[in-house]
Amino acid sequence: MSERRNTLSLTPEDWHTWFSTQAAWTRQTRLWLYRQAGLSRADAVLEVGCGTGVIAEELAHLSSACVVGLDLDARMLAFARRRRNGVTYVRGDVHALPFPDGTFDIVVCHYLLLWLADPVRGVCEMARVGGCVLACAEPDYGGRVDHPPELAPLGRLQAESLRRQGAEPEMGRRLGEIFSAAGLRTTVGAMAGRWNLPDCLDESGFEAEWRMREHDLVGLVSPEEMQRLRSVDRQAMADGRRILFVPTFYAVGR
Questions:
Q1: Most exposed among 114, 200, 234, 239, judged by the fewest C-beta atoms under 10 Å?
Q2: Beta partners for 71?
Q3: How far is the C-alpha of 19 from the C-alpha of 184, rounded, in Å?
């Protein structure tokens, strides 16, 4: 589902908190995308890269469809299964999905394509097993805005960290070409959002965000500089000055 390559230093509970935080940011766009895809009429839905099951559980709650969540990470799947949320979880690779052609009405992913070694092949596989493919959220750190200016290094550092982990931090702008290369008729857009962080990020969200930053930026920033940036971030939020905008794109393919 999300940005999660170096997983060993964090627990599935940590990742679930982070995935829930991310999902809250993109929920309104997802609900709109589900309507476009006809979720209410779907019999079978697959989420690829489901992680701890945040989005898969949402899909099961919002529809009467049989929902399947797929991920490579056995720890994430074990956590998701323990939640007993009505979803069937399967271990597998998006580059070679273990399902026959046309198994699903809708195939969904959320913050996944930036992590794929071959995103075109991944989308081809999603299109092979599903009638409609939704990439609900893919970031583009090339357009990231941080304010106040003292926090500007965070965007560059995060993008560098993602590249070191094997991800493509500018995946958002590539969605159209990737879906087209997979042979899909595609609509691509960028989601609107409220990025005045005191309004959209509570204390638990702030802690989750910084736990992930500290995890991702190890080796790129000294502990002292990390603490300084965290303090500036917290004060800017308290003062109502904090703005964080990462252009986040979606795609609908048929």
A1: 239
A2: 91
A3: 28
Return all residues near 156 (Cβ < 8 A) that are at least 6 apart: none
Amino acid 1 reads: M
Residues composing the chain: 254
The 8-class DSSP code of residue 128 comes to H
Domain range summary for the chain, segments of one domain joined by + = 12-253
Architecture of domain 12-253: 3-Layer(aba) Sandwich (3.40)
Of the two residues 115 and 244, the one the predictor is more confident about is 115
Burial class (CB in 10 A: 0-12, 13-18, 19+), 203: exposed
Q: Residue 99 has what pLDDT?
A: 98
Instruction: Report helix, strand or coil for 155.
Output: helix
pTM tops 0.70, yes or no: yes
